[in-house]
Every structure is written in C-alpha cells, then in structure tokens.
Amino acid sequence: MDLEEIRVAVLRIEGTNCEDETVKAFRNLGVYAEAVHLKQFYSDTVREDEQRSLFDYHCLVIPGGFSAGDYVRAGAIFSARIKSVLRRDLEVFIKEGYPVLGICNGFQVLVELGALPGFDEDKPIAEKPEMTLTVNASARFECRPSLLKHENKCAFTNLLDIGEVVMFPVAHAEGRVVFPKEREEEILNTLIENGQIVFRYVDESGNYAGYPWNPNGSVYNIAGICNVKRNVFGLMPHPERVFWGYQHPEMREGYGDGAVVFQSVIEYLRKNF
C-alpha cells in the first residue's frame, strides 16, 4: 500500500479528547486521517456526505479522554455503543489484520469491549471483559511523564528495539491493570508466554519499580498490551502528547518518542496491504 492510500479514522464521541492531536500526528507523516464521530458509521440523521463505513479506513484509533463522562466505569458506555453498532464490522476488520489502537480511555474501551487481551484470533471480541483498568492504587489522578520499556513488538511498535525505553506522559485516574483474582496467574502467564505485553513501566535506570514510576499500580508494571494477532494495541500513556521533541521534558529537536507509534503502524500498513 502506498503512503497516500492509507486512511485512518480517529473515533470520537462526547467526552473524548486528543483526537485532533492524533489526527495531526498521522497527517504530519503523510497519511490521510480524520476524526469520525461514532454516529457517522450508523445514523441516518447524518448528512450523506458525512456518512462513513469502517471499511473506508485501514486503521482505527480510539483516543483518550472521558467518553460519556466515564459513567458506570471508564470506557464502559463508549464500548457498549461500539459493540451495539460496529461489532460485526470490527471483528472482520481485526481478523483481516487491520490495526486498532486504543490510547488511555481508548485502552479502557478496548478492554470493556473484549478486544483485549484478545487471546482468540477466531473471536477477536470476547463476550465479556477478561480484565479491567481500575482506579489507580494512589486513588488520585496521575499526570506526569512515564518511562516505558519495550518488551514485545506489535503493529504499532515494530520500529522500536526490544528493551528500548521511551517516555510517554500519563494522565488518568483509572489505569491500573487488574485481572480476576481466580484467573490472575493464568491470564498473566498467557500474556507473557504469547509475548503480548508490549510496554512495562520502569524507573530512570530501566528497572521495574513501584510508585511513582508505576503510576497506577498495574500488576507486573503493565503499561500496554496487544492481542495475540498483534494488530490491536492498548496503552495508558499518551504517545500523541510527545509526538514532537519540544513536548519532551528535555526539549529535543525533531520528532519525540511518541512518533514511533504512528510511524510503526504506517510501516505495518505499507508492508502488509
């Protein structure tokens, strides 16, 4: 696939944020991207020229924010709405290898949707969630730079070396990865064995550490995971907020650490479609 053919949808509803930054990141790298409201995929009240199909795009991004006010649970309402109108299309989309990214609230949505941890390639959306992203162990909203060690590659990190440490900022109140107590060891071991843990929180020496380096208390310092097919990826930190070097605390030139997420998925699409 040529660069100019790639089309990216950044899905939004009331309460999402950073969709504009995400769109601009993709556009800066030479691909077409637009923010698309969920209603544009199904509602006949939307003008004909604004109606969309999921298959108009090659990549779907669910951005951060507080979708629908995060009522019930973070991401629960957004995921329920997606499941009610897009489930079949989204399952086909994932099965065909098209990439899906969830950032912060988007990660919460993918978890609530049952698209992550995504152990079954033949059934990419589970009937019910198999994990959750719950209230931070600190019981506070955590907003700061975070350091992440790259553990395993996926469609969104294939240009990063294994073991490389990057800085993406976090900004969330409910980002602690938790598994059902009775299945915690089983699920964690499966993620490790499958190489589905993409990023883990580390300290400035690259060592796995507790708070504040692990800002939410996630089990095994998990910051981001992918499905077994490696084309669905969710992470709590925000790569779009450090797309440029001047957004980095050390004020670097050119692109920042977050650019590699967008560059990687573009390379994935160019090679595979």
UniProtKB/TrEMBL annotation:
Its EC number is 6.3.5.3, 3.5.1.2. Signal peptide: none annotated. GO terms for molecular function: ATP binding; glutaminase activity; phosphoribosylformylglycinamidine synthase activity. Keywords: ATP-binding, Cytoplasm, Glutamine amidotransferase, Hydrolase, Ligase, Nucleotide-binding, Purine biosynthesis. Gene3D superfamilies: 3.40.50.880. It is found in: Cytoplasm. PROSITE patterns: GATASE_TYPE_1. Pfam families: GATase_5 (PF13507). The keyword Metal-binding does not apply. One of its GO terms (cellular component) is cytoplasm. HAMAP family: PurQ. NCBIfam families: FGAM_synth_I, PRK01175.1. This is Phosphoribosylformylglycinamidine synthase subunit PurQ.
